[in-house]
Specification:
heterodimer; A: alpha/beta; five-stranded mixed sheet; two-stranded parallel sheet; about 25% helix; globular; B: globular
Chain lengths: ~190, ~120
């Protein structure tokens, strides 16, 4: 695991998030998208003492989620189908942008050759929002590459160890359920 | 730069999706150091985009040449290290496949700045 320069992090135990009303997808539906993000946030919240709360007000939310196409004004234009899928900003910026041109799927409907699993990318980008950089471990959620028709949503030891060093453990986190992590921490 | 959180326009936006725009560097597999091959400049732009190649000093990343030079070899080695590949500095199939795969748009600069230096074997 790696961190952004300066190792920025949030200093609050509840982060609010909201979806842009103007930059959203027609399909999947908003409800499906929200369900996906709820699960993705839940994975990170299960290991660190930070909770995530959905709010309606996009302008005041800590984390701002939107789907954009092409040049959308942040100096990091999207490039159409595949290529770059999404990007997020380090704490405490809070913005996360997904390429609206992708064929986003939410229910493992990988019929299209260019289908991209929204939950996998959301889980990855939330890692960035929390302060994690990219990992060299191919199995890690924070590995920067995700082939089409691939689902990778489970946090690995590498992801968990990285975020634990930023935020500490969720009091309800059972390390004995993560045997590999326990060994890793024991070994420093 | 202070940038707006998002454009506030509410105009209907039609997104034209015709062809996949993924980078396809497959024709560069096994290109050798010192070669001049069309497409190498595009590879340099890709590596520049993700923090592996600095620009040529002119301030424009559009001026990359098609020469497979030592700087490109170093950048490939660094890419291989960061992506968990064997560090060869060569454009082998597995390296080119990863470079052609969809990815997160966040630069790998934070990985590069960890201070480790690599040498191709």
């Amino acid at each position: 695991y790696t961190y952004f320069g300066g190792k920025p992090k949030w200093n609050r135990d509840t982060l609010t998030y909201a979806f842009s009303e103007t930059h959203k997808l027609d399909y999947p539906t908003s409800d499906d998208v929200k369900t996906v993000f709820r699960r993705a946030f839940g994975r990170w919240a299960s290991v660190i003492p930070v909770s995530f709360k959905e709010v309606d007000d996009y302008t005041t939310a800590n984390l701002k989620i939107g789907f954009f196409a092409g040049d959308h004004g942040d100096g990091k234009p999207f490039d159409g189908v595949l290529g770059t899928l999404a990007h997020a900003f380090a704490p405490k910026n809070g913005r996360v942008h997904f390429d609206a041109a992708e064929t986003w799927v939410v229910n493992d409907d990988f019929g299209s050759k260019v289908a991209v699993d929204l939950e996998s990318v959301a889980t990855h980008e939330i890692g960035h929002l929390l302060g994690l950089g990219h990992s060299s471990r191919e199995s890690a959620v924070m590995y920067p590459i995700l082939p089409p028709r691939t689902k990778k949503v489970d946090l690995t030891v590498d992801d968990v160890a990285g975020v634990l060093r930023l935020y500490g453990p969720n009091p309800e986190l059972r390390l004995d359920s993560l045997a590999e992590l326990k060994d890793s921490l024991r070994n420093g | 730069r202070n940038l707006p959180d998002e454009y506030t326009t509410k105009a209907t936006q039609t997104i034209k999706v015709s062809n996949a725009t993924r980078h396809d560097f497959s024709r560069l597999v096994d290109v050798q150091l010192g070669s001049h091959v069309s497409g190498v400049s595009e590879l340099k732009r890709y590596l520049h985009r993700f923090g592996y190649v600095k620009d040529d000093g002119s301030g424009s990343s559009k001026n990359f040449s098609d020469v497979f030079d030592g700087r490109l070899e170093s950048a490939i080695s660094l890419f291989q290290q960061n992506l968990g590949l064997p560090i060869t500095g060569r454009l082998d199939t597995s390296t080119v496949t990863l470079m052609s795969s969809p990815r997160c748009g966040v630069s790998d600069t934070h990985m590069i700045n960890n201070g480790m230096h690599v040498t191709a074997r």
